[in-house]
Write a structure and sequence with these properties.
With about 800 residues, this protein is an alpha+beta fold. The chain is built from 22 helices and 24 strands.
């Protein structure tokens, strides 16, 4: 039987190649996910290993909680520099190297520091650290700076050039005296880095007497672990010492944890591609088994056992799985390089790294490919056990019609999916569940969507005849009528082939509709609820940081500006938790300068002392009534504010940042809280573009800020969503490609099955061109059938998700 399996594969090379191609596509995606993240992680491992040679012990701020990855570098914890003298006197300490760092911005013009762009970090330079001097010399005075190689190459900065840099204040000019690299790495996701002489950095960063970290080298023969324990016994509780090995392992762990998210993201699309591949392989093996019914029946007559027949089909599948997996691993390595290039085209500069194909990746590739192929072939293989020796007497395999039970099950699953999606959508109406944390409706729609996939697959065979009949209703010529009848004649085969296309195309449609709907709602909500014409916010990646002092006063004096109102942002622990726990500090009389809202209960005049305003959807979600206590934890201290105002943003705009406190009270609690946003309202007749130009001129020496008109904000939203949709759509097209392979494979098998029929048609005068036209039109009908199912699935599920969100 194994010889027969080998011979069957060899005699049908094209069929075997198409089957393998469906598996190759899925396996290569899985392998590419692991190769890409492993390669990137390996490049950082090399840099971290260099850090082990740079120092033995590091002293850093002690934090019980994880540092917010979105926090600006300037907001990261620091500690007093007085510990330097204490540490230097400890036996075993050979040298002590202090370091400080902060955020900065290089002034490259108006578009140099867009909101959400890569960050710029400035730090104090130290010889012998993990940063290496590439060219030039180290800075020796406050007017000199070292620039990261990647930053210099990207922006055509040369040694001797003068660059404009701002920290938490106006811009200053510095001469570039050299370039540096992070070990051997010259690209770090587009981020920029600057290095200054230590004493100059203290003044420039406004960090006199403060340190970010201290690197320690020990004398020869000193036990590092013992010295770490000694230092921790001497150091104050706000700082801690750890060996470089522990620090490097922690950094590497945090990095790989971040990379694991991207790996999971890619694996999700790999799974979709594999599922589509399963449909293709299952359909192909089912058709092949049906075509070989007479051959298998003859084998039964000469004494072949059922188990041998099952094993023969599974052995064919295993061979295809092994070969496809091996090819998929090679293709996946190349695809990983392509993903890297694609991300670089989107502006994400990545560290240089060779491809790392770990043994785990090879094992996973083979396991996924072989198991997927065997799973697809299992049901067709089991069908061989039911072939009777009497089937050898038949010229044409007997067709089986769908049972009433299968029709009922398919109908019930499809109806159940409709009920769940509609019920989840209706339940979310008016509650804005995704913004209040009540995700029950969203989960219902998600479950309904999963059942919708299954229900459409189970019922597709019953819908094939009426839908394809309708799609081909205008087919009048003999060739097109034959094509339509061929597609209808085997509805199960047609439905399974179309289902593969339905999955990929349905997801593409769903993502497109979800993106377009969310974008339209955001844009409409922005116009309905925002009254400001221009916004000033921290630039770069400093989303939740503070603007330089005095920005609000500077722009208030600009001609054409009616009002300029500041808004503060303070991370807190809100009732019910949530993803974005922020308290907004506002001047009650100036809230209408940046928001369009309606007060539903209370009065803005009551926002004094502990009086707080909460948006209606949040008040309803938490069960707050006017006058209730609102518990909020700020910097570890619980405050019970009084609900003084319940308001609602106009345009039915949801907002998860719904707690507004008088900024004077917020500054009493935290005097260091800064201004996060300045909202500007222009005088009548002043165009936003002209107002922005005037603000840019006034803030020419403040490149750390981002200045946006409402149109700019809308443009950024469109660009962000457009990029996400393009990336997701591109990944989903892999599953569509596999589905098209399935159509080719199905029609190829159909041509083989109809050899006698086609021969008879040729005998009565059908030309070769007419035969080709018949097959092509059948392909079009099957693709249209899959498209109809996919578009319906995508539109209906997209509608449900939009409603639930």
């Amino acid at each position: 039987m194994f010889k027969i399996a080998f011979r069957n594969l060899w005699d049908h090379k094209l069929r075997s190649a198409l089957l393998a191609a469906a598996i190759v596509a899925g396996v290569s995606f899985v392998v590419a996910s692991f190769v890409f993240t492993d390669s990137l992680g390996s490049s950082f491992d090399g840099v971290f290993e260099q850090a082990l040679d740079a120092y033995d012990i590091s002293i850093d701020p002690a934090t019980d909680e994880e540092v917010d990855p979105f926090a600006p570098v300037s907001d990261l914890p620091t500690f007093g520099g007085s510990i330097l003298g204490l540490v230097s006197e400890v036996d075993g300490v050979e040298s002590v190297t202090p370091s400080i760092q902060t955020t900065a911005a290089i002034d490259f013009g108006e578009a140099s520091n867009p909101f959400g762009g890569p960050p710029t970090t400035a730090f104090s330079w130290a010889e012998g650290g993990i940063w290496e001097l590439v060219d030039g010399q180290a800075p020796t005075n406050p007017s000199e700076v070292l620039v990261f190689v990647g930053t210099a190459e990207e922006n055509d900065i040369s040694i001797g050039d003068t660059i404009r840099v701002a920290f938490d204040g106006p811009v200053s000019e510095f001469q570039v005296v050299g370039t540096m690299s992070f070990g051997e790495t010259t690209d770090l996701f587009g981020a920029s880095f600057l290095a200054y002489e230590f004493d100059a950095a203290e003044e420039l960063f406004d960090m006199r007497g403060q340190l970010s970290t201290v690197a320690i080298n020990v004398t020869e023969g000193t036990d590092v672990d013992i010295l770490v324990d000694t230092l921790n016994a001497l150091l104050p509780p706000e700082v801690e010492a750890q060996s470089s090995q522990s620090a490097v392992e922690e950094e590497a762990s945090d990095l790989k944890q971040g990379l694991s998210f991207f790996n999971t993201f890619l694996l999700a699309f790999s799974g979709i591609a594999l599922v589509v591949g399963l449909f293709v392989v299952y359909n192909a093996f089912r058709v092949v088994v049906a075509q070989r019914t007479r051959e298998l029946a003859l084998l039964r007559i000469i004494g072949t056992k059922r188990l041998q027949m099952i094993s023969s089909v599974l052995f064919e599948a295993a061979i295809i799985g092994v070969i496809a997996s091996a090819i998929g691993i090679l293709v996946g390595a190349g695809l990983a390089s392509g993903i890297r290039r694609l991300l670089e085209l989107f502006g994400s500069a990545l560290p240089s790294a060779g491809l790392v194909v770990a043994p785990r990746t090879i094992v996973v590739g083979f396991v996924v490919g072989i198991v997927a192929t065997l799973i697809s072939a299992t049901l067709p293989a089991l069908r061989t056990a039911r072939i009777s020796p009497m089937e050898a007497l038949r010229d044409i395999p007997s067709a089986t019609s769908a049972s009433l039970t299968s029709k009922i099950i398919g109908g019930l699953v499809l109806a159940g999916s409709f009920v769940l999606i509609i019920f989840g959508s209706v339940a979310a109406d008016g509650s804005q569940s995704a913004f209040t944390g009540e995700t029950g409706p969203l989960k219902l729609v998600g479950l309904g969507g999963f059942l919708l996939f299954i229900g459409l697959y189970l019922t597709a065979r019953f819908m094939a005849k009426p839908i394809i009949g309708f799609l081909g209703i205008r087919a009048k010529k003999m060739t097109t009528r034959l094509a339509r009848e061929n597609a209808i004649r085997t509805p199960r085969r047609t439905a399974t082939t179309a289902a593969a296309l339905m999955i990929g195309l349905g997801l593409v449609v769903m993502v497109s509709i979800l993106s377009a709907s969310v974008q339209d709602q955001i844009l409409a909500a922005t116009e309905d609820s925002v009254s400001a014409d221009i916004f000033i916010q921290p630039g770069g990646a400093n989303f939740f940081g503070s603007l330089p002092d005095g920005i609000e006063e500077i722009v208030s004096d600009v001609d054409g500006i009616d009002t300029a109102t500041g808004l503060s942002l303070k991370p807190v622990e809100l009732p019910g938790g949530g993803a974005n726990n922020f308290l907004l500090g506002v001047r009650p009389e100036g809230m209408d300068s940046f928001l369009k809202f309606a007060v539903l209960a209370g009065s803005l005049d009551d926002m004094t002392g502990d009086g707080i305003a909460v948006q209606k959807i949040e008040a309803d979600a938490q069960g707050f009534d006017l006058g209730d206590e609102v518990p909020i934890t700020i910097d570890g201290t619980l405050y019970n504010f009084k609900l003084a105002v319940v308001f609602e943003l106009l345009g039915d705009t949801p907002d998860d940042q719904s707690y507004y406190l008088n900024v004077e009270r917020l500054m009493e609690i935290d005097p260091d809280v800064g201004t996060n946003t300045v909202a500007i309202v222009l005088k009548p007749g002043i165009l936003p573009a002209d107002g922005k130009e005037a603000v840019l001129d006034a803030l020419v020496d403040y490149p750390t800020v981002s200045i946006l008109t409402l149109d700019d904000l809308v443009g950024q939203i469109k660009a962000l969503l457009g990029g996400i949709v393009a990336m997701i759509g591109g990944l989903l097209l892999m599953s569509v490609f596999i589905a098209l392979i399935g159509i080719v494979l199905t029609l190829y098998l159909a041509v083989i099955e109809r050899t006698r029929e086609i021969g008879l048609l040729r005998a009565i005068g059908m030309s070769k061109a007419q035969v080709r036209k018949t097959i092509r039109f059948e392909a079009v009908l099957i693709a249209l059938f899959g498209a109809v199912l996919g578009i319906f699935l995508g539109v209906f599920l997209g509608w449900g998700l939009v409603r639930a969100i």
